[in-house]
Design brief:
This protein has 144 residues and is α+β, with helices and mostly antiparallel strands. The protein is built from two helices and six strands; from the N terminus they run ααββββββ. The chain has helices spanning 2-63, 68-75; strands at 78-79, 85-89, 95-96, 104-110, 119-129, 132-143. Strands 1, 2, 3, 4, 5 and 6 form a six-stranded antiparallel beta sheet that branches. Strand 1 and strand 2 form a beta hairpin. The chain is rod-shaped, with a radius of gyration of 28 Å.
Length: 144
């Protein structure tokens, strides 16, 4: 009689161990899915904000008839010696002036920094984070 009781408790303990193992594996899978969902959400938020900033820069470039000086004033951008515009953003997409506090960089690079009248002028807009491109856009404007 004692042997049956011992085998029943061994069976119960084995079943309990398998149940704990199953729930441990299931919880590990769930945590992995939640982490993946969070990373996807962060990437999506970055892409959305980068798209909005790039579109804003493109519309500004077009509205000033491809004049980089006016675009720089409206966008609060810094002109580089190569003839492009740069805007630095912090983690919350607020413009900043110090490169140390910047998380994102928007660069507007025109094909021709000083276009002549009556021609098409194109510019590439790139938004990047730590050197890795998040979003790119090409804008073209007829210069009058």
């Amino acid at each position: 009689m004692g042997g049956k009781r011992a085998s029943k408790s061994e069976l119960f303990l084995m079943e309990l161990i398998f149940s704990i193992l199953f729930f441990s594996i299931a919880s590990a899978v769930c945590v992995t899915l939640f982490v993946h969902a969070r990373l996807t959400s962060i990437e999506s938020t970055q892409l959305t904000a980068a798209t909005l900033q790039a579109q804003s820069a493109a519309e500004t470039f077009k509205s000033v008839n491809a004049d980089l000086d006016q675009a720089a004033d409206l966008l609060n951008a810094q002109q580089t010696p190569e003839g492009s515009l740069q805007i630095l953003y912090d983690q919350n997409w607020n413009p900043v002036s110090e490169p140390d506090s910047a998380s994102y960089l928007l660069t507007l690079t025109p094909d021709d920094p000083s276009p002549d009248s009556n021609q098409l002028c194109s510019a590439q807009i790139q938004v990047s984070k730590q050197g890795e491109s998040i979003y790119e856009l090409t804008v073209t404007q007829y210069v009058r």
